[in-house]
Amino acid sequence: MTNNIGELTELLRQHNLRRTVARVAILRHLVAMPGPQTAAEIENAVAEHGFDQSTVYRTLESFNEAGLVIQRELGDRLLRFELVDARNTAVQPYYLCVGCGRVLRLSQCATDGIVPAGFQIEQITIRGRCPDCAEVLK
Ligand SMILES: [Zn+2]
Description:
The chain folds into 2 domains: 5-83, Winged helix-like DNA-binding domain superfamily/Winged helix DNA-binding domain (Arc Repressor Mutant, subunit A); 94-137, no CATH class. It is 36% helix and 17% strand. The protein has helices at 5-14, 21-32, 39-45, 53-65, 131-137; strands at 37-38, 69-73, 79-83, 94-97, 103-105, 125-128. A 3-stranded antiparallel sheet has the order 1-3-2. Bound molecules: zinc ion. Zinc ion is lined by residues 97, 99-100, 102, 129-130, 132-133. Zinc ion (ZN) binds at residues 97, 99-100, 102, 129-130, 132-133.
């Protein structure tokens, strides 16, 4: 995806969302991230704009209601937000670092053939430690 202002605006428009400074800043951040983000991480990332916490939460809520983002709970009781990718309806596997909470999207081929035919998968999260957190343990 893009962080071009015109394309971000178009993405908002496709979801019937008016362009605001907060929406553009938060959308730009979500587009750039390799995996879902907590509200706190998003708030932190756009802190330079000086939005208050309720603005960030309201913006995420409007994205969620518009179907622009999906909320995910990956087993550590934190809600994370991720852009909905309309082209992709398969289960998205994730890697979750139990040390710092960093989340990465994994390749979908990781899920091929791991459950018997006819069984559906709702969620796959692989938990472990990222290189930074593994280093701390040494
Ligand atoms: Zn980590």
